[in-house]
Specification:
The protein is mainly α and 237 residues long. 86% of the residues lie in helices and 0% in strands. The protein has helices spanning 5-20, 24-35, 38-66, 69-93, 99-118, 123-132, 136-140, 143-156, 160-171, 174-202, 205-236. Helix 1 packs antiparallel against helix 11, helix 2 crosses helix 5 and helix 3 packs antiparallel against helix 10.
């Protein structure tokens, strides 16, 4: 079975980029960066995605120790085909290009208004707090950083990109998978934070879903052919 570091890296990088562009967490990062310091938003989002990627790879790496590698390979193949069909279904049945963007923006607007209403009577306290936040660590773990972290982390938990990362790590070199995943997440999140809403509104969700669906199906066929080749080689022995 294909398990080289380069193969794991390239598959993880391609899958992450196509899965995360146009994702809810991508839009959330873009909108948050419009309202808060970019470095805090970028730091919070990237930290959450790196932690999520490492956890997912660890789960995938441990899976063959609990289930035979043959079965983890079959499960991964099924997941790729399933996610491919799921993404294609989303591409052809989506209600609109900016549906997810509107949904995320509405939720963040509600949170923003609630926070603004709760802070009207505490302007003096906020001024004192801002003075105390000159220390680097206090700024780093500010409410903005924690908000970006929590929105991204819980938004990614159980997402198809996380499950696909687990499947990749179970079947390929885990170091390649984690490296490709982190670089892919960093590229997408940086683009979202510095591109802002103008970039987010130009992204075609249907095209992204279509591209990721085709990619997942390609990975599925590759995985299926690899298992077939391994079975044929074993039969010849």
């Amino acid at each position: 079975m294909e398990s080289s570091l380069l193969a794991g890296f390239t598959k993880s990088l391609a899958m992450t980029v196509l899965s995360e562009i146009g994702d809810k967490t991508f839009f959330a990062a873009a909108i948050l960066a419009m309202r808060h310091p970019r470095r805090l938003v970028l730091g919070g989002c990237l930290t959450a995605l790196i932690v999520m990627t490492i956890l997912s790879v660890l789960f995938g790496w441990a899976a063959p120790n609990l289930i035979s590698r043959k079965w983890t390979h079959h499960i991964t193949t099924v997941l790729f085909f399933g996610f491919g069909l799921w993404s294609l279904w989303e591409a052809f049945t989506g209600d609109g290009e900016s549906e997810e963007l509107a949904e995320v923006e509405a939720k963040l607007d509600a949170d923003w208004k609630a926070g603004a209403a709760g802070s009207k009577g505490t302007s003096k306290d906020n001024e004192d707090l801002k003075k105390q936040q000159k220390i680097f660590l206090t700024q780093f773990f500010s409410p903005i950083f924690l908000k970006a972290f929590s929105i991204t982390f819980f938004g990614e938990w159980g997402d198809k990109s996380q499950i696909a990362t687990i499947g990749l790590a179970a079947d390929m070199d885990p170091f390649g998978v984690v490296l490709g995943g982190i670089i892919g997440q960093a590229l997408c999140t940086t683009a979202a934070v510095f591109g802002g809403k103008s970039l987010a509104t130009q992204i075609s969700e249907k095209m992204v879903s279509l591209s990721s669906g085709v990619l997942f199906l390609v990975f599925g066929f590759q995985s299926f052919l690899a298992s077939s080749a391994a079975a044929a080689a074993a039969a010849e022995l």
